[in-house]
Design a protein that fits this description.
Blueprint (H helix, E strand, L loop, with lengths): L1 E5 L10 H9 L3 E4 L14 H14 L5 E5 L3 H10 L6 E5 L20 E2 L17 H10 L3 E2 H4 L15 E5 L4 H9 L4 H5 L3 E5 L6 H4 L1 H12 L3
Parallel strand pairs: 1-2, 1-3, 3-4, 4-7, 7-8
Antiparallel strand pairs: 5-6
Helix pairs in contact: 1-9, 2-3
Protein name: Esterase
GO molecular function, one term: catalytic activity
Organism: Streptomyces coelicolor (strain ATCC BAA-471 / A3(2) / M145)
Amino acid sequence: MDIVLIGGLWLNGSVWEGVASTLESLGHRPVPLTLPGQGDGAATATLDDQVAAVLAAVDAAPGRPMVVGHSAACALAWLAADRRPGRLAKVALIGGIPTPDGRPYADFFEVRDGVMPFPGWEPFQGPDAADLDEAARHELAAAAIPVPEAVARGVVRLSDERRYDVPVVVVCPEFTPAQARGWIDAGDVPELARAKHVDFADIDSGHWPMITKPAELARVLAAAAEGN
């Protein structure tokens, strides 16, 4: 199966190298995406530009792919479900949830000179970054790509209720499946509360398992793709 991989904020397709190699060994075709505005100098890229790039990868797949979103990019994966509900086999959400209709994509941190730079490690102290050593933190921060303002503050638009028919697996790194279920049951994740098929997969890591536990994450994704 084609597995489309979308990294979260400040990341491009290279972050998936370890995951991709294991997925290939397990018989799948990984498609790591580097989206407009992720290192190509296009600081004017918009959320619509990134959605279009995800849809192009979905449309290019020979069968029905699984689309994987990490962190904020869970919203991009869910937008793919909204735009191509009949084309997707499944959506996997790693360490994040879908942004509801009408909300900004990722307006979380300060925007300076038209971009949202990596804010440093202070906002991620605790479980998010607990499994990243100093070398890994330095490498991730040094490689972080500022997010164009029109991406971070772009408004998510969802319109096709057939998205709720697309199976979802919530991959839980710095939180547990029980916590995720609790958030959904409490109404804090309205999109997943309406989804008809939601499963959960646990992985003992921080917020960036593609960096700290790539082989384990790949096995989780392969199992999801295979319906296990």
